[in-house]
Amino acid sequence: MKGVLMKYPVRNLVMASGLAVVGLAIAAAGIYVGETDDAPGAALMGLLLMIVALVFGVKIARRRK
Predict the structure, then answer these.
(1) Least crowded by CB within 10 Å, which of 2, 26, 49, 62?
(2) Could you give phi then psi for residue 2, rounded to 5 degrees?
């Protein structure tokens, strides 16, 4: 036996969850920088990156083999 590999649905769910967490962390950092530095562009960029990460997470979660 070469090793235990995750099945595709489980792997997709793990990847999607990880991507969503990274997206939320980026959004939180962007909002924090935007609030402390009074840069509305940084907050907007953080929110856009979060949306993109969540979209990719959903695409990964819905992907079939």
Answers:
(1) 2
(2) -75, -30
Burial of 22 (0-12, 13-18, 19+ CB in 10 A): middle
pTM value? 0.59
Residue 42 CA: distances (Å) to CA of 1, 33, 36, 46: 49, 6, 10, 6
- Full residue range of the structural domain in which residue 34 is found: 24-65
Whether 1 maps to a domain, the answer reads no
- Residue 7 inside a domain? The answer is no
How many structural domains are present in the chain? 1
pLDDT tens per residue across span 10-33: 777 888 888 878 878 877 877 777
How far apart (Å, rounded) are the C-alpha atoms in residues 23 and 49?
6
- Whether residue 48 contacts residue 29, with contact meaning beta carbons closer than 8 Å, is answered with no
